[in-house]
Design goal:
The complex is a heterodimer of chains A (155) and B (256). With 155 residues, chain A is an all-alpha fold. Helices cover 73% and strands 0% of the residues of chain A. Chain A has a single domain, classed as Arp2/3 complex 21 kDa subunit ARPC3 (Orthogonal Bundle), CATH 1.10.1760. Chain A contains six helices and no strands. The longest helix of chain A is centred in the C-terminal third of the chain and has 32 residues. Chain B is an alpha+beta fold and 256 residues long. Chain B has three domains: 37 residues, no CATH class; 108 residues, Rod shape-determining protein MreC, domain 1 (Thrombin, subunit H), CATH 2.40.10; 82 residues, Rod shape-determining protein MreC, domain 2 (Thrombin, subunit H, Beta Barrel), CATH 2.40.10.350. Chain B is built from three helices and twelve strands, in the order αααββββββββββββ. In chain B, the strands form two sheets. Chain B has a six-stranded antiparallel barrel with strand order 1-2-5-4-3-12. In chain B, strands 6-7-8-11-10-9 form a six-stranded antiparallel beta barrel. Chain B is globular and about 55 Å long. The chains are: A mainly alpha (155), B alpha+beta (256).
Amino acid sequence: MNTLIAIAGILIAVALQAHMPTLTWIGGVRVEFLPALVVYAALTMHRRRALMLALAAGLAQDSLSAAPFGISALAYGITTLVITSLREALDRDLPWVQWSAGASTSLVASVLVFFVIGLSFGNIIKMFLVASLSGALTVVLFFVADYARLAWGFE
Amino acid sequence: MIVGLLVVGWIVFLGQPTRFSTKLRMIFVQLCTPFVELGDYFPFVQSRRQLARENKQLRQENDALRQEVRALGETGRENLRLSQLLNVKEHTPFRTVTARVIGRDASNWWRSLQIDRGSNDGITDNMAVLDADGLIGKTVSVSSSQARVLLITDQNCKAAALLQDTREPGVVSGTETAFSISPHLMMTYVNRDAKVAPGESVITSGLGGVFPKGILIGTTTHARINRQTGMYQDVDIAPAVDFHRLEEVIVITRTE
């Protein structure tokens, strides 16, 4: 996959994230596109490049948020390291693997956030809602991106 | 790779907020903002933007008048109290900057907005932000041409407040509740003997120096004794502002 396309994807995804309204029909959470992109990069690209993109994605997200700068980058970096380490054992084409990886990435980010904002029942419910959404979005992204790569011949 | 992660970890846990992390954040903000502003051209927001532009003049005038009426109401109450004390004080107007909302928070865990005005327009950190309906929040991480507004519904944004009728003080901040769809506010440290009537207005008290006195925050809905300490009341507040539909805001750059 072309690195420039990946960077453009990250910038567009984070801008979309900053424009998305909260979804009232699923408990007032907002769709997060970046965990899906991070997982896709981790299961597709070279480890170092995937890590760089994960860090860039996290920093881009934090720059458009009131979050402590770097907290998402740390979460995405950790999950990228773990996923790339397990890549041999994971079948990236299985939807449940994609879903689990996307949800786990979101969960790690949420757990790090709890060190800053504290833990509450409401936050735990929200964490699982966000993780489920991210997992589902990861499956969709794999389907679309793999199809696009086949169609247009990206590496 | 490990070094990269360590650097990020250092930024988060040890070095917050450092000059390096602030500069790095600004670089990323400058990189991402053009893409955020592209959001105006997304089909699902374009028509709303056009309508907003057409009505902008009328709304600004309306907002100013409503804010003035509210300020006059609070001034009247203040005058009554001060007259009783034979110590009349002049009510000074605010100096403000109007800004357009160009983005929301990219994360699910914080509640903030990005506005299209920054330090070039006289905005600095910790300035109060409001609209015609009431208090919105305060500015954080300001760059030259944009700023981030931490909403009062965020757990990290706290405002010294008063119950308008009983004059009971407290602290208002956002709370996260399970299956909460609309933003939720809570006023804590309210005297446990205070009589809190549902529907009573809650305003900023002016303590703390960030939020000027008399800005409407919301109305009380429910009060209960704090279960952990038993010494204070916690008061649920319905925000005066519809945080889902913010398009233009007013930043108070000077209070005197």
